[in-house]
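Lab notebook, bench 4. Continuing the backlog of folding jobs that were queued last week. Each job is logged with the same field layout so the records can be merged later without manual cleanup. Today's entry covers DUF4834 family protein, a 80-residue chain. Filled in by technician R.K.

JOB TYPE: sequence-to-structure
TARGET: DUF4834 family protein
LENGTH: 80
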Amino acid sequence: MILSFLFFTFVAYLIFKLVFDFIIPVYKTTRQVKQKFRDMNEQMRGQQGQQASQNNQPKNNTDKKKSTLGEYIDFEEVKD
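JOB STATUS: finished
OUTPUT FIELD FOLLOWS
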């Protein structure tokens, strides 16, 4: 009789630990990860919308301006 009570108490403890130390944290983490993915997806959609609206606007003449610094010349080390 006492052995069955101890056995059922031990099984109840294991179930309690499983639920509160594994199942609930996994559920909460999964929910948070899904929310973060939704937030990132909405942010990307907003950025794509902004880019699309910017592409529709006329471009400035900044592309036609040339740099006054000159050309870039590769540097090669000369060994003696």
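OBSERVATION: The radius of gyration is 32 Å.
SIGNED: R.K.
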